[in-house]
Design a protein that fits this description.
The chain is α/β, with parallel strands linked by helices. The protein is about 45% helix and about 5% strand. The protein contains 15 helices and 8 strands. The strands form 2 sheets. Strands 1-4-5-3-2 form a 5-stranded mixed β-sheet, with helices on one face. A 3-stranded mixed β-sheet has the order 6-8-7. β7 (about 345) and β8 form a beta hairpin. α3 packs across α6 (about 220-230).
């Protein structure tokens, strides 16, 4: 924030997804996982243990175990999805992978290697689609079980659906040959966004109850997004990098676009109609600091920009903005009887109060400075609603507050990114997924899941304040 970026979040689960260029330029996902295991339940719709699809029916080199059973179940439903969807979207039948599907035991030095790899160890931590052999392979020892344990089975669903997305690209004019012929038209970050988008379209199909074997409740999409944002590029990776997959905001945006708008939008993504937010650090000093301002600096840094933005926003509606004074206190502030979280807008005094020694500094330390800025901007959103004579309680007020936080952030991004550093948008996504504070109304009530909060933030970011229910 303000020439800042982010620092790694201590104690948080982290996966880093890199593009592994194998001998044949296969799309691959390399992961390193840490954190506390989470139990998110099964995505297999039947309750009886051991149900799903027998991997021995089509998965090569499988051990027939639980992990491969999950993978085979996911792949089976993904194949059905594309068999049904592909003809309408692309005007021709969907051809299944001619090379098939491979499970790899990277814990066994003598295990068979799949096509596109010299030895099993080459696949460690990976799931990938190889266009030259038209296969999908996954590591059943060091990737899928770790994803499942850290983020739940939905994470396995996303990874394999993403890889099938690459197979779809290879069948629709966005494959390896096209990328080689015109790399500027098909940069890696666009290819990865399309695959994330296709994965989102598939998950929506599952959420709508159309899959035979899989299910996912909408309130469990948060865990799916948690896994996806952990697949982001290292902070500071340029979007023009050959292996760039995008920052968390890029990846979540692509997934949600597919989830909400379907395969057609995914297939029509181009470098001309898609804006990516990933970027390098602005200076060596910015990079050395991880880009983050300290907690004591963040309010002085962000409030002038907030005041400028909301002054114009309310002036455009014929009202005059009065900046709300902010006062720090020890502990969670309580305004007008409602607990809004570590930052609150007190409607009766038209002022802000924040926890200067407890949870807010903790969030700032664990996620980053723009997590603090996001929460603060959402309370400014409530202040703007009061100025404009809009209700401050109810679900609409909460959604509007999140949306206005996004619109403020979008205004910073539009200013040639001078005020946002790499990772700031990732921090916004993370705090919206982890906490409902930004969506709380003046009474301290919030509705909706993290998926919904991120969607509202993105709406404001891309469409501006007028999309936030203030007209």
């Amino acid at each position: 924030m303000g020439h800042t970026g982010r620092v790694n979040r201590p104690g948080k689960s982290r996966l880093v997804l890199l593009l592994s260029v194998l001998a044949l330029l296969a799309s691959a996902c390399t992961t390193e996982v840490a954190g506390t295991p989470l139990s998110q339940g099964s995505v297999v719709s039947r309750d009886t243990p051991g149900t799903g699809v027998d991997p021995k029916s089509f998965v090569k080199n499988t051990d027939g175990g639980e992990v491969d059973r999950l993978a085979a179940t996911v792949v089976t439903d993904v194949r059905v999805f594309w068999t049904e969807t592909f003809p309408t979207a692309f005007g021709k039948p969907f051809d299944d992978l001619s090379g098939g599907y491979y499970s790899v035991d990277t814990a066994d030095a003598d295990a068979k290697a799949p096509p596109c790899a010299d030895k099993a160890a080459d696949v460690e931590g990976n799931a990938f689609y190889c266009p030259n052999a038209d296969i999908i392979a996954w590591d059943r020892a060091a990737l899928l079980p770790v994803l499942r344990d850290r983020f739940g089975e939905a994470a396995v669903m996303l990874v394999l659906a993403h890889e099938m997305g690459h197979a779809v690209q290879d069948r629709t004019g966005a494959g390896l040959d096209e990328r080689k012929a015109d790399p500027r038209k098909w940069p890696t970050i666009l290819i990865e966004a399309m695959a994330d988008c296709y994965a989102g379209a598939f998950v929506r199909w599952v959420a709508d109850g159309k899959a035979e074997h899989l299910e996912i409740e909408t309130d469990r999409l948060d865990q799916a997004l948690e896994s996806l944002i952990s697949f982001r590029d290292p902070i500071g990776t340029s979007q023009g990098d050959r292996g760039a997959h995008g920052d968390a905001f890029d990846r979540v945006s692509a997934f949600q676009d597919g989830y909400e708008q379907g395969v057609k939008l995914c297939s029509e993504m181009t470098v001309d109609n898609r804006t990516f937010t990933a970027g390098g650090f602005l200076s060596a000093d910015d990079q050395a600091r991880g880009g983050n301002l300290t907690f004591s600096e963040i309010f002085d840094s962000v409030t002038p920009g907030l005041d400028d933005y909301f002054t114009k926003l309310v002036a455009d509606k014929g009202k005059q903005w009065t900046p709300p004074a902010a006062t720090g206190a020890d502990g969670e502030p309580t305004c007008d009887g409602g607990k809004q979280g570590p930052v609150a807008f007190c409607a009766s005094t038209k002022a802000l109060a924040y926890d200067k020694s407890g949870e807010l500094p903790k969030i700032h330390s664990e996620i980053g400075d723009y997590a603090t800025a996001t929460l603060l901007a959402s309370r400014y959103g409530l202040a703007a609603r009061q100025t404009l004579g809009k209700p401050l309680d109810g679900e609409q007020a909460g959604r509007s507050a999140v949306c206005l936080s996004g619109s403020f952030t979008g205004s910073l991004f539009a200013a040639n990114k001078r005020y946002l550093s790499p990772g700031d948008l990732d921090e916004a996504v993370q705090v919206l997924l982890d906490y409902d504070y930004a969506a709380r109304d003046v009474k301290g009530t919030a509705k909706g899941a993290g998926f919904d909060r991120v969607r509202e933030f993105r709406k404001g970011f891309t469409q501006g304040g007028d999309a936030c229910g203030i007209t």
